[in-house]
Amino acid sequence: MPRSTPSKLLIAFSSLLLAHACYSAHEHSLLSTTSPDAPDVTLPLDITLETLISLSLLLVGIVSSGWELKPISLRSYAGGVESGRISVEGRKGGLFSALEERGGFLDVRKQRKEFTEWVKTQ
């Protein structure tokens, strides 16, 4: 689904506004470093507001240009998995097949004992 024209225009306008805010901030930093009496090193309020407004407009444009969200229904997803229409990571056998086919617990003490016996024989 292509982006709509208003969202394209909003993205373009807010991108230009953001570029202007960045340019203004850069020029302000150059001006404050070249002048001998420049005690004010903070960014002016108008540049800060322009940056925040352009970023918020850019976010609104990006979000509004997205595709329409589909409703999520666990019932239809789980039903599709159980019937085999949808495979979960290449596995068949249902949604909970990984839990049903897992191995048992390992006996760490037994493995440690076998390892020490193996090391003694080496």
UniProtKB/TrEMBL annotation:
Q: Which UniProt keywords apply?
A: Membrane, Signal, Transmembrane, Transmembrane helix
Q: Which GO terms describe its cellular component?
A: EMC complex
As for membrane topology, the entry says: Multi-pass membrane protein
Q: A GO term (biological process) for this protein?
A: protein folding in endoplasmic reticulum
Q: Where in the cell is it found?
A: Endomembrane system
Alphabetized Pfam families for the sequence: MMgT
Secretion signal span: 1-24
- Homology family: Belongs to the membrane magnesium transporter (TC 1.A.67) family.
| Name of the protein this chain belongs to | Magnesium transporter
Source organism of the structure: Arthrobotrys musiformis
Task: Supply the source organism's classification.
Answer: Eukaryota, Fungi, Dikarya, Ascomycota, Pezizomycotina
